[in-house]
Write a structure and sequence with these properties.
The protein is an all-alpha fold. The protein is 16% helix and 0% strand. The longest helix has 11 residues, at 36-46. The relative contact order is 0.11. The model has no long low-confidence stretch (mean pLDDT 81).
Length: 69
């Protein structure tokens, strides 16, 4: 068994050195737009489809009998 996991890659298949760190100007500086992997990940995240919330969904946890008097 190999303990090595598959390396993280870009959408084009290029290996990425770190998934946790991005290019910045200094330790507390702004992020650079030259970090292609970060821009690619943000684009994927921004285009992710989030299903709409249904505030009054049918059968929303009710059970038992309903009796009108």
């Amino acid at each position: 068994m190999s303990d090595r996991s598959k390396p993280t890659t870009t959408d084009g298949g290029v290996p990425v050195s770190s998934d946790e760190h991005s290019l910045a100007v200094g330790p507390n500086g702004p992020l650079l737009l030259h970090d292609h992997y970060l821009i690619e990940q943000m684009a994927n995240f921004n285009r992710e489809r989030i299903p709409e919330r249904q505030p009054h969904a049918k059968g929303g946890g009710a059970f038992g009998r309903f009796e009108v008097t």
